Task: structure prediction
Amino acid sequence: MEKNRGVIKIGNRSIGEGHPVYVVAEIGINHNGSLDVTKKIIDGAIFAGADAVKFQKRTPELCVPHDQWNIERDTPWGRMTYIEYRRKIEFGYDEYSAIDKYCKEKGIHWFASCWDEEAIEFINQFDVPAFKSASATLTEHDLLLKMKSTGKPLLISTGMSTLEEVKAAVEATGTEGIGIMHSTSAYPCKAEELNLKMITTLRNMYPHVPIGYSGHEVGLAPTWAAISLGATFVERHITLDRSMWGTDQAASVEIMGFYRLVSNIRDIEKSLGDGIKKVYDSELSSLKKLRKVKHLEDIKKAI
Result:
């Protein structure tokens, strides 16, 4: 692994080169307003081996444009206006207190993407180990700085953004205590629009910042490829059932798929090695059998 690259701490975990990939299971709003569903997804994330679960927190009156408030739509609670739906999908203090207690009992991190300053203050009262900025808020520098002011690590997602906007966000926040996530904000995202080589670009641009990947594709292979390209933390949406109601469900991974995702990430980590060529003890019998070297002592000398 490369040396002297940036490392941040999320709770008891170090994130960056030379450390295990930090896997975030994004619950977001896939709970559909149900604490029972939330707990089942948290249990699924733990079973799958995720390091954290993540939510989205908004103050509807601040985040929903006024011209959309009264647009009616079908929801799990029947037909209602969009502002009514946004209010209903948001968990309040009682729900997040229950989530906080449940995650602490189960030994898994939790945090949230906060879309406004009230949401930051709300989530910060639970002493979460990190904050995440959504791609949609990358250009809201005051919001990024508000999250950084908590003293917690800030993971910045870069979907729907130009490179100039990414640079401006990092200039605003500084590189200390942040992680940058490559992302494409399409749900689900086409393979040809994932542009995973941006991970390499970001690693070269910010050699002292951990670089990650937030994926919205169907399937798991691109996330594994992101690890091979140097992503040190990854995020994928998680759900109990992709056919459930909700805009993010189609780009989510079900529990057994998430288990496979994490299991193979751990295998990839082991497989990448350190880039230094060597002959392993497990190769010696093949070396003795297939190379024209007569004695084990000669083999060891050859090594």
